[in-house]
Amino acid sequence: MKVKSLKNLKKESLKGKKIIVRVDFNVPLDEKLEITNDVRIKRALPTIKFLLNCKAKVILMSHLGRPKGQKVKKLTLDPVAKRLGQLLGKTVKKLSDCIGPEVEKEILKMQNGDVVLLENLRFYKEEENNNPIFSRQLANLAGIYVDDAFGTAHRAHASTVGVAMILPSYAGFLMEREIEVLSKLLKNPKKPFVVILGGAKVSGKIEVVQNLISMADSILISGGMSFTFLKAKGYNMGKSILEEYDLNIVRKILEKAEEKGTRIFLPRDLVVVKNVSPDAESKTVKIENIPEGVRGVDIGEETISLFENELKKAKTIFWNGPVGIFEIDKFAKGTNQIAHSLADMEGKAVTIVGGGDSITALEKAGLASSISYLSTGGGASLKFLGGSKLPGIEVLLEQ
C-alpha cells in the first residue's frame, strides 16, 4: 500500500513550518492519573524528533479515553505532556483546549523547534462526528498535517480524516511501519502461518477470521469469542458470554475453513467459575462437560498444550486478544503461557502482536522485547487484516 510518506516530507523545507501531528496518546492511567504504560508515547518519538530536528513548530493532538464530548478532568492530557517532556528532554506545553482564540494565541508564540500538545480532542463531540467546522478549526492551526496514529486509522474522525482533506498530508514513521508490517502479513507470510485470536467478542473479529482463512494454516480461537464458536458446534456454555446472533455466521466460517483446508482450533477444556472475582473457586472441565451456572474464564492445561504445539510449528504468528480474563491473576495462566510461547519463538518465527491487552500481558511478563513487532492498533490492525479500507489511511493515499 503506497502512501504519501515522510520520505517526501523530508524533501520539503520544514524550518519554521507549523505542523499538526495526529498521535495516539490514548494511554492507560491508574487511579492517581499516573501513566501505567507509555509504549504509545515512545512509538511516536521518531516522527516528533524528526520534525523538531527540522526546526518545525510541532503541534500534537490526540484523544484519551471516552469522554463522549464532555470535559472530563481525569481524562486531561496533562500526564501525557509531562511524560513526553521527560522522554524528549525538553518542555512540552500542554494547552488548555484544542481549538479557540487562546490556543491560536499560544501557537503564534511558538519558536522553531517548539512542541505543544493540544487538549483531549474527544472533549468535543465534533471530533468523532468528523464535523467540518471543527476540522477547519484544527487545520487552521498549521500548514502541514502528519498522521502517526495508526491506532485510530479505522475511525473517520475530524483529526484523522477531516484535517487531512484540508492540509497537505503525510504519514508519520509509525503509520508507515504499521502498514508495511501488516501488508507483508497479508501478502507473503512465511509458512506455516498461525493466528491466535482471543478477547471477549467474536463480532469485531468476523472479518479478520473470514479473510485470514485463505491465508493462515491454523487459527487458534480462545477467550470469550471461542464460546460462540463452541456453542455453534453444539456445546453447552453455561453462563459464558455469547453472541447468539453470530452463531450462523460462525457455522459458515467453520464450513469455509474446512473447504479451504485451514485448521481452526478451539479450546478442549476451560477454567470455569460461578462468579467472576479474584477469590472465586475455580475448576477445569472438558468442554463437553460444562455444567449450568458457570462461566469460562481461561483455557485449561490441555488447550494450552494444544496451542503451544501449533505455535512451535509456525514461521509467522499473529496474536490479538487475551485467552482469558487475564486482568485477574488467577485467570491469567493461559494468556501468560501464550506470551511465553511467542517469546520462545524469537529467532525462529516472525511474531506480531496487536491490541493493547495482548501487549500489556507481554510487558507485564517482561517479554515484549522478544516479539518481532508490536502493533499499536488493536481494532485498526484487525480491520486492516480483515481487508477493510481504513479511512485514516485512504485519505493519505497518493492521488
Give a written overview of the molecule.
This protein has 2 domains: 6-175, Phosphoglycerate kinase, N-terminal domain (Rossmann fold); 189-385, Phosphoglycerate kinase, N-terminal domain (Rossmann fold). A 6-stranded parallel beta sheet has the order 3-4-2-1-5-6. A hairpin with an 8-residue loop joins strand 10 (269-273) and strand 11. It is 37% helix and 16% strand. It has helices at 6-10, 39-53, 78-88, 101-108, 125-128, 132-139, 158-162, 173-187, 206-212, 223-232, 247-260, 301-313, 333-344, 356-364, 378-385, 391-394; strands spanning 18-22, 57-61, 93-94, 115-117, 144-147, 169-171, 193-197, 218-221, 263-265, 269-273, 282-286, 295-299, 316-320, 350-354, 373-375. With 399 residues, it is α/β, with parallel strands linked by helices. The protein is built from 16 helices and 15 strands. The longest helix has 15 residues, at 39-53. Residues 1-7 have low confidence and may be disordered. The radius of gyration is 22 Å and the shape is elongated.
Rg computed from alpha carbons, rounded to a whole number of angstroms: 22 Å
Corresponding CATH superfamily of the largest domain: Phosphoglycerate kinase, N-terminal domain
Report the biggest beta sheet as strand number plus sense, adding barrel if it closes: 6 strands, parallel
Overall body shape:
elongated
Estimate the strand proportion: 15-25%
Indicate the structural class.
alpha/beta
Task: Report helical residue fraction.
Answer: 25-40%
CATH architecture of the largest domain: 3-Layer(aba) Sandwich
How many distinct domains? 2
Question: Count of DSSP E strands?
Answer: 15
Largest sheet strand order: 3-4-2-1-5-6
Helix tally equals: 16
Poorly predicted ranges (pLDDT <50, ≥5 residues)? 1-7
Using the coordinates above, name the CATH class of the largest domain. Answer: Alpha Beta
Mean pLDDT across the residues is 92
Predict the CATH topology of the largest domain: Rossmann fold
How far is the first residue's CA from the last residue's CA? 13 Å
